[in-house]
Amino acid sequence: MTTSIFDTRHYKYPQNFLEMKPKLSRLEQAIKKLEANLIDTAEPTNLKLLKQRLDSGLGLKVDYASELNPDQLMAATTIDGKVLVIAGAGSGKTKTLTYRTSYLLENGVSPKEILLLTFTRKAANEIKDRAKSLLASSLSNQELSDEELAEDKLPTDKALNSITSGTFHSFCNMLLRQYSGLLGINPRFTILDTGDSEDAIDLVHKEKKYPAQTKAQAFPRKKTLQNIISTSRNRRIQIRDLIESNYPDIAVHIPIIEQLAVDFHEYKRTNHLYDFDDIISQVVHHLKTNDTFRQLLQSQYRYIMVDEYQDTNIPQKQLIDLICESESVSLMVVGDDNQSIYAFRGANYENILLFGETYPHAKLIKLEQNYRSSPSVLNYINALSAQITLGYQKQLYSDAPIEGHKPVFRRLSDEPKEAGYITDKIVALKPEYDYNDFAVLCRTSFQSNYVQLEFMARNIPFIVVGGIKFIERRHIKDVLAFVKILYNPNDTIAWHRILTLFKGVGAVTATRLTQAITADNNAFESLLAAPFSKKSDQLEPLYHALTKAQQAESVDTAIEHILEFYIPVLKLIEENWRERTEDFRVLKNLATEHTSLDSFLENLALDPPNDSVAVMGNSDNGQDSSNDKVTISTIHSAKGLEWPVVFVNSLVDGITPHHRSLDDFEALEEERKLFYVACSRAKTQLYLTAPNYFSSYSGYFDKPSRFIAELSADEVTVETTRRTMIEDDDPIWW
């Protein structure tokens, strides 16, 4: 008989579990229905089906059967109907999608009929690049006929480039511009990133001057307002209901916030502005209301693949469903319900669980062979999976010959001691590993503070994944505001950002000047007109800079003209202006890759450079050029990555899981999945740590995380210095 590591009697169950039962019952029925359609490759009939497929494709250049395991092979060769592939952690889903892309092309599917949707452009490009390499290597040593070498007979680089691939946002952005005439919209819109949307909401709020509801409760900040409006749209929740359940302190402002959301939407339409939510929702709207548009897409895209399906929100699911409503359209979605951890971005975990309800004839395939973790780590991961209340049954396994180390749990007296323990372990293991083989994963970024201090004191080089992204840096956003104006002079948010840089030009003057420019058919000459020209001596130079940039023959030349004007302004407002100008080299290099302003702006908005990494080295200047550094990351940022040795810290109930989730069943389940994601990043060794207590304004927390406590003591090694028993026999590990 196995026992839990700790007495679990003190952990309260979420208060809303009973009211969740009807929803859980519906989800459970949908899961059972799809589980009944599982394609089990161990069954003789399915093995026979696989053999028939491969035998019928005698001309196939790639040896799919020898390079994929049976489940991967079934997923790669099932190209008809609707299919959900549950891909467990480390089970090779990218490889499976790569081989499926290759298999489609080898079976004569036109690349223009294939649509590949991912959550990063990098993921889409990786699948296509791997497919290119796969096909190229399989063809390199074969003698081919002239007919096979013809472009329409052989999958080529050009053919693979003809596959429509990318993120949901980039795909929808392309549709809105390409079919703008059919949809009756202006194709010269600009895209607001999250920060721009916050600024736009703030601007509308100030311009409208809504009557104050109360002075007793401050009106929410623009970041909160943007999050409320966006979440309301993506999760299809009324703003009133969302605020009453998640933001009760600001409920008094509900009428104003509801009106602000309406005015914000009208403001965007008037000025040809689209935020991230608009891009997808607009395409969904036109698919529902424009039969010609819907039929056009349905006839064009016959083979659709969706990666990370568990991370989709409601509009993204609607987009897929509307294109795939015909039974003749092939759809394969790949994901892992155990890794649905993005509800805060609007992701809806129900999408993957209700796939069988949406598509009653759908098939289910499971990838359960893990190529990442040792058997001992996998045993722990499977034990965590068994604690998740609802989901597809799965049992990860490995053919690795060495069992490996059990995960280790250790409690320390406080956070500095916890950081010291992690550092000591890294130092002890360093002879066996490089620094970049280690990762410290935290529930939230502030939980890494003591670890960073300890690493610096011990001269351990590290990188911190997080911080301000390149695209969000103040000086980069300033320069991009100039570019946005060149492309769309109606972009009032960009105008406000630029004009308020100048002394003497406040928000009121900026609004009036922007209105004058718009009224004058977007002519820059308004900058020279009285009374505005008297407000700042920078307006005339601004006019000349914009005019020169507008006439530039290339994007990088236009940016050069902008920088000639902007850098002197930057000197006046930032002490570290020289350091900031280093980023402009990156911006100019990116500009050389584009032939038009719209392409340049779209690329930065929809797929910005991923350099949100702070680096601390052990060299004299603190900047070590070596890549051999320990990674410190939030768990969310670590999803999809792996390291030989992983530390997960701050495992105190109230921190992991977060105290705000303890009374909400769905929130607590997501926290459990977040811990699952963290542990499944480890390849050979997993260390779980917790201080004896954590104290903050939110409360005093001193119990180990329930995610640790509820598991069997057989799954983990508990390191202790001594054990103290208190009166109720609840063991405390010191």
Strand order in the largest sheet: 12-11-13-10-14-15-9-18
Question: From the helix content, strand content and strand pairing, which structural class follows?
Answer: alpha/beta
Radius of gyration: 28 Å
User: Which overall shape is indicated by the principal axes computed on the Cα atoms?
Assistant: globular
Uncertain segments of ≥5 residues (pLDDT<50)? 148-154, 618-623, 723-734
Number of helices: 32
- Percent of residues in β-strands: 5-15%
The strand count comes to: 20
Distance between the termini: 25 Å
Query: Level of helix content?
Result: 40-55%
Please, what is the average pLDDT? Answer: 87
Oligomeric status of the shown chains? single chain
Instruction: Report on the biggest sheet.
Output: 8 strands, mixed
